[in-house]
Amino acid sequence: VHFSPDGRSIVYSSERGDTWNIYKTDLVRKDDKYFVYARELKETQLTDTETPSFQPQFSPDGKEVAYLEDRSEIRVLNLKSNKWRTVMESKYNYSYSDGDQWFQWSPDSKWILSDYIDTGGWNNKDVALIKADGSEEITNLTLSGYNDVKAKWVLDGEAVLFFSDRA
After folding, report:
1. Are strands 2-3 and 9-16 parallel, antiparallel or unpaired?
2. How much is the pTM?
3. Cα separations (Å) of 65 from 22, 60, 163?
4. pLDDT beyond 90 at 119
5. Top-confidence residue, 95 or 156
6. C-alpha angle with apex 140: 125 to 78, nearest 5 degrees?
7. Is residue 76 within 8 Å of residue 84, measured between CB atoms?
């Protein structure tokens, strides 16, 4: 579950029928301030695919939702146009189990950090910098030969921290 920046919507994945898809629920009444006390909610299905879609995150500006398609491909859905784009293909990630993939929006909603398989194979991950509009090649930030994972934006998006198994 991920809250929108204004706190009036949540996105989440739900298994219904044979697969997982992404849904959004909004507070309907303007005088409802919290989901726990809401008198009226509206649910909208955002994805409708035969492959699992999950781990949705609102962009910090609230205009888009990034999510995983088929466990490892990162897609971004524009909430106004309802069109999605792939920003990182599944060949750059490998999933062992649900929830083992990591990505995070930049504070300005223009970039996404993610774990990334480049030249080291599936057992060696790097940190990827991905242009959220999908217009540029993926940039490998670490190129270390070690496992570098779970990068986070810090200092208001001016720097990146990540875990590494470098001795």
Report:
1. antiparallel
2. 0.92
3. 10, 9, 25
4. no
5. 156
6. 95
7. yes
